[in-house]
Design goal:
By secondary structure, the protein is mainly α. Helices cover 79% and strands 0% of the residues. It has eight helices and no strands. The longest helix has 18 residues, at 21-38.
Length: 136
């Protein structure tokens, strides 16, 4: 009976441990970056997101965060990251691409992207306003 309890604890311990230690490390960098981002410390968050991106260049969570940060900073690389995030299945990447086109004042592209995003996410009321803004 005692060995059953020990075996059960061992199995539980193995289930709790991450199977891929690198994934745990990347997740911790994402969390650290998110905390800094929430505090308004985007440049500090960037360091953690860049470390995560170096380890997981196709992880949609990391791509999204780096694209969001670069969009907020008005950096040209943002569009390429949003496109990569879209290829990896990020459901909000289209919104990011619309934002980038708006920042560039590429109104025809912004209009088309906001229209597509508004159709995809009708609950996003801001999208409709941004779509109208791009039409002016």
């Amino acid at each position: 009976m005692r060995w059953i309890r020990v075996a059960g604890l061992l199995i539980l311990g193995l289930a709790i441990l991450p199977l891929d230690p690198e994934s745990a490390m990347v997740a911790s960098w994402i969390r650290a970056g998110d905390r800094l981002w929430a505090e308004g410390r985007g440049l500090s968050a960037r360091r953690f997101y860049e470390m995560a991106l170096a380890r997981r260049p196709e992880d949609p969570r990391v791509l999204h965060r780096m694209a969001r940060l670069q969009t907020a900073l008005g950096e040209e690389e943002a569009e390429a990251l949003w496109r990569a995030a879209m290829r990896q299945g990020d459901p909000t990447a289209l919104r990011g691409l619309a934002e980038v086109a708006t920042q560039r004042r590429d109104w025809p592209t912004a209009w088309a992207r906001w229209q597509a995003w508004a159709a995809q996410a009708p609950e996003d009321r801001e999208a409709f306003a941004r779509w109208a803004e791009a039409a002016l």
